[in-house]
Structures are given as C-alpha cells and as structure tokens.
Amino acid sequence: MDIEEMQAIWSQIGQDLEKQKKITNTLVLKMTQERYANKFNKLATYETVGAFICFITAVVILLNFNKLDTWYFVLCGALLIVYFITLPALVLKSLYAIKAIKIDAASYALTAKKYVKAKNKLMLVQQLGVCLNFVAIVLVIPVFSKLFKNKDVFVTPSAIWYWLLPVLVIVMVFVSKWGYNCYKKITNSAENLLKELEDTEV
After folding, report:
1. pLDDT tens string 91-147
2. How confident is the model over 73-105, as pLDDT tens digits?
3. What values do phi and psi take at 155, rounded to 5?
C-alpha cells in the first residue's frame, strides 16, 4: 500500500468520523429538546385543566350576572370574570412560550437569552397570580353567596364567613407556596439542562 492509498483511507476515515459526529450531535440535540419540553408537560396539563375550570366559572358568573343587583356586587362580579379569564390566559401563554423554545445549536447564548426572558416572564406571572388569588378569595365568597343563596354578606354577614375566610387564606398560602416552588424547581431544572448541553460543546 503506497502513501496515496493510505492518505485516501485516512481521509475517508476522517470524513466518516465527522459524519458520525454530526449524527451524534443531532441526536443529542433532539433528545435534549425532548427532555426540555417534557419538563413542562405536567405543568401545561395542570394549567390547561385549571384554565378550563376558570373559564367555566367565568361563564357561570356571566350567565347569572343579572342576580348581582347592587353596584358592589356588579363590581365584584366583573372583577372575578376578568380574573378567571385573564390570569389563566397569561399563565398558559407564558408557559407554552417557554416550552416552545428551540435549542439553537449554533448559538447557546441566544438560546440562553430567550430562556431567561421567558423564565422571568413566567415567574412574574406566577407572582402576580399569587397576589391576585388572595384578592379573588375575598371576591368569591360574597359573589357566590349572592348567586346561589341570594344572600348579601355585606349587609347580613354569616358567622360561617368569619372562620371560612381565614381557613381559605391559610390554604391558599400553602397552595401558592407549593405551586410557586414547583415552577421554580422545574424552570431551574430546565436551565441546568441547557447548561449541561453547553458544557458538552455539542
């Protein structure tokens, strides 16, 4: 075997290795993209179900809006409708936006920038939701009492609301903290996944 033949063989081996490396890198990127998206699947399912319940609740209030016969009930009912439609829509929009981020093999800096922006927006919406949830609790009690029992708790407050409201607030504190921590854990996990991919220099 002469030198030219050996060079040709080594050149072919080099080309084969480069081709194999590209295939491997493509598979790694594809698997990482799937793992990344899967991290948000459970949240997306829960939030979609929650949004559906919120939309149904808004429709129920809207269909019975004529029962809210005072200015303060009209105000409370309108605020609740806005809450039950707007907040779930914002959550779903920000959640699906972060889930849909495509990992750019050519520029991890660009991917990281997109991710940080989407993550900050998602967590901001979650923080807004935590605050608005407590406001919603205060509005839900009188509105639903009026809609389903025709009682004005502002005029004739029932003793049940004096213990129910604090219980609901306490439950909401724990649920909100748990939910926010879940979001924080999953977004941090996704961010670590992107960093691991960058460190491998695929």
Report:
1. 999 999 998 888 776 577 788 888 889 999 999 999 999 999 999 988 998 899 889
2. 999 999 999 999 999 999 999 999 998 888 776
3. -90, -50
Contact at 8 Å (CB) between 44 and 56? no
CB neighbourhood size of 170 (10 A): 10
Q: How many CB atoms lie within 10 A of CB 94?
A: 20
Count CB neighbours of 156 within 10 A.
Answer: 7
Show the DSSP H helices in the chain as ranges. Answer: 3-38, 41-63, 71-99, 108-149, 159-200
pTM above 0.90, yes or no: no
Q: In this structure, are residues 90 and 121 in contact, taking their beta carbons and an 8 Å threshold?
A: no
CA distances for 193 relative to 99, 129, 174, 197, 198, angstroms: 13, 27, 29, 6, 9
Spatial CB neighbours of 155, under 8 Å, sequence gap ≥ 6? none
Rounded distance between C-alpha atoms, residue 46 and residue 186, angstroms = 14
Tokens of 122: 């998602």
